[in-house]
């Protein structure tokens, strides 16, 4: 309370100030505290130096707004003023403050840790003012969500968004506050901005746009309207174009969006025949091309992490030969443990999904897996999950191609490669004991 009184005194707010003047003064201060337009943002990403003057005043402004809001809540609790959320002035105050909170909800080049801390305090205070449990609840009241989007729109147009980086951050924050499937109900209001941001040359902007796009796609999961309106086609085309770019920062996001979107497209496609060429095959063709010729370690890892989510139906069996070749190559030329771990996890998915076709491709897989097992046994790795996944793959391969597997496991030339524990896991205790007895009696 002492801090509040000191703060109000510094703002020259006294007990006889009118309610209207209090609201108006607070709204005016909020609007003066928005992150300023940075025109150089059109030609390059914004930097801290672009906000040098703004950073000198923002913390004090946020603190003063907090004092004024606390005073309003105190007066409401003392019944000296009556707050009606549906009045224009209260709604204007709420929308403006939500925009400012969104600009400072996380650390960025235009603020500091103190700004973020005060922003979170303001978030708590505004929820207390409206007696709401969450920002999501507050946005759903009084059409606040649409009003906030309309207030942001002038800053998020194709020709303006790069000069208002804080508005872009605020837009993303708002999308992530909304519970499913509300964004789908307003897809015409939220999707254009995400598509504008994604269509940029700065990787960080593309990542942010993809994060927004993924949120919208999730809200639209299995919604037929996404197909009927043509939005699915537009988004798919955008993502498909991005999939040709070699940028590790957003590979995983691109393919997450595509996998989620394909699930909706395929669900409503009554003519779909998975054994013919489909949109899923279009994506797999690009992804496998990227994987097969890529030497960059980080790109190899993110491509491999992205692959399993597309191996979801038997129609993908048309890619078995190529998948076998890629998995074998990634096992034979392993230089990064994270990539190797992803490779073995993908291999397990492959073996389980296409178990009826594995026998036709077992020889190169056995060669790659057993050679890798031998290499790792000579140079132990600290990640036990890698060896466990590898042994799981070998055992799965044995069960899916038992004739070849039994010959491999009982070949004297393989004794230096196959450990006893691996042989027991594949053949089973009984077979291994019988095999050992025969060897001993010889």
UniProtKB/TrEMBL annotation:
InterPro entries assigned to the protein according to its UniProt record, in alphabetical order: ARM-type_fold, Tti2
Gene Ontology cellular component annotations, sorted alphabetically: cytosol; nucleus; TTT Hsp90 cochaperone complex
SUPFAM superfamilies reported for this sequence: ARM repeat
Family listed: Belongs to the TTI2 family.
Species this chain originates from: Frieseomelitta varia
Protein's recorded name: TELO2-interacting protein 2
């Amino acid at each position: 309370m002492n801090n509040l009184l000191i703060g109000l005194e510094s703002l020259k707010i006294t007990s006889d100030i009118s309610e209207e003047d209090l609201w108006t003064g607070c709204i005016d201060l909020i609007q003066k505290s928005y992150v300023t337009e940075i025109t150089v943002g059109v030609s390059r990403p914004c930097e801290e130096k672009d906000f040098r003057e703004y950073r000198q005043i923002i913390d004090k402004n946020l603190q003063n707004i907090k004092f004024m809001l606390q005073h309003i809540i105190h007066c409401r609790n003392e019944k000296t003023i009556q707050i009606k959320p549906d009045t224009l002035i209260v709604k204007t105050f709420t929308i403006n403050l939500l925009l400012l909170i969104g600009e400072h909800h996380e650390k960025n080049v235009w603020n500091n840790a103190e700004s973020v801390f005060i922003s979170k305090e303001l978030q708590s205070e505004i929820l207390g003012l409206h007696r709401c449990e969450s920002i999501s609840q507050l946005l759903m009241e009084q059409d606040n969500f649409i009003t906030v989007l309309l207030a942001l729109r002038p800053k998020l147009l194709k020709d303006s968004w790069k000069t208002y980086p804080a508005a872009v951050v605020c837009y993303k924050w708002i999308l992530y506050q909304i519970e499913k499937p509300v964004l789908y109900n307003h897809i015409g209001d939220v999707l254009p901005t995400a598509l504008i941001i994604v269509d940029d040359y700065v990787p960080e902007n593309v990542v942010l746009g993809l994060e927004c796009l993924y949120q919208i796609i999730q809200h639209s999961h299995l919604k037929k309207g996404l197909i009927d309106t043509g939005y699915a086609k537009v988004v798919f085309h955008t993502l498909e174009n991005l999939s040709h770019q070699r940028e590790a920062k957003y590979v995983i996001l691109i393919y997450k969006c595509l996998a989620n979107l394909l699930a909706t497209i395929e669900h409503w496609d009554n003519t779909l025949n998975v054994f013919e060429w489909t949109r899923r095959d279009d994506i797999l063709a690009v992804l496998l091309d990227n994987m097969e010729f890529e030497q960059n370690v980080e790109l190899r890892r993110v491509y491999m992490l992205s692959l399993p989510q597309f191996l979801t139906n038997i129609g993908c069996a048309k890619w078995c030969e190529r998948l076998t070749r890629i998995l074998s190559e990634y096992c034979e030329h392993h230089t990064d443990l994270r990539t190797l771990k992803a490779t073995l996890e993908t291999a397990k998915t492959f073996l389980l999904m296409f178990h009826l076709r594995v026998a036709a491709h077992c020889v190169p897989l056995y060669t790659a897996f057993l050679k890798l097992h031998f290499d790792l046994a000579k140079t132990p790795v600290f990640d036990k999950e890698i060896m466990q996944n590898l042994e799981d793959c070998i055992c799965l391969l044995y069960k899916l191609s038992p004739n070849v597997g039994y010959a491999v496991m009982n070949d004297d030339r393989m004794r230096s490669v196959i450990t006893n524990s691996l042989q027991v896991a594949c053949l089973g205790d009984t077979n291994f004991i019988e095999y050992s007895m025969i060897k001993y009696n010889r």
